[in-house]
Design goal:
- By secondary structure, this protein is mainly beta.
- It folds into two domains: 38 residues, no CATH class; 309 residues, Neuraminidase (6 Propeller), CATH 2.120.10.
- The strands form six sheets. Strands 1, 2, 23, 24 and 25 form a five-stranded antiparallel beta sheet that branches. The chain has a four-stranded antiparallel beta sheet with strand order 3-4-5-6, with no helix packed on it.
- α1 crosses α2.
- It is globular.
- This is SMP-30/Gluconolactonase/LRE-like region domain-containing protein.
Amino acid sequence: MSIMNRTPSARRTIARAARAGLTARALCAVATIGLTAAGCARAEVVTLKRTGQPITVHRPALYPETIEFDSSRGKFLVSSFWEGAIYAVDGDGGVSRVVDDPRLCSVLGIAVDVERGRLWAVSSDLGASIKPSSAGPKNLAAVGVYDLSTGKAIHYVDLAPLSPGAHLVNGIALDSAGNAYVTDSFSPTIYKVDPQGNAAVFLRDEQFAGDGINLNGVVVHPDGYLLVVKKSDGSLFKVPLANPSRFARVDVAERFVGGDGLTLVGKKDLVVVANQAAGVASNAAFSLSSEDGWSTARLRAVERLGDVYPTTGVLRDGKLYVIYSKLNELIQSSPEQRGRLRVEATIQQIGSAAL
């Protein structure tokens, strides 16, 4: 509902609140005269707009796949596809190694558990790491758990025996109890690993299968379900934690082909970072919203990011950031070419969120 469609009294209330400098959400709270609950719920939450100076990560050929934020350090954390390690990145792009476990190959998804002082890492092998696995390309599927402050290993969990065939474990998300949910892009499987390192198949279904890279980014919604994106066709799924077999595709008009990273903002807004798949080069961030608990959703905004192959995003102090380093060039290059790749990753603010 636009302000001009509200009653004169409601318009005066909103105008006074705006002059007082209230946020969009606070405006909604005070502007109750002549407003419906739905009208309030759709106050602007996520704004997509590239802004600020990008941060160059000063370590060539790091090729990060995932970016997180460690509030205990006040720094970004990034995984390294090439080095099989995790680094902290400060505001000037300086890096320091946080985790260096020789068992890790290519680190994709990472997740921070500040409450328990843990850092989770997903390890796969596509033959594009300086630390090849003994299992060989497309066979490694592992999760490492580390002390957040020291980087010391707590658990190392082999997921491959849980599901036959090829593997590319990729995304990871944590629930409030400290359980991890891990997607597999080559096997139609989501795994669950508890805080003690016990692993099981959480959900396996052929709807998650397809050509190329499939299940990818995942987030845990505070109301008790996962949201998961399937990169190959851009589908978004809702998976109940208490009864995963009752999962369903989120009804949204668009498909987010190349969907890689998901960032949940509050309960009703989701940012999808998409790169390339199935001949489609999305290379964009998509802002979605839902008013019915993610049974349905609608696209609210798109920010085109250019030919940079963005992978994942993170929310830090109300600002949305993505990371990119043309990771696809590393994956697609020959072993001879990889030693000459020297791209430095970039962290770019692409928007903001009012919580």
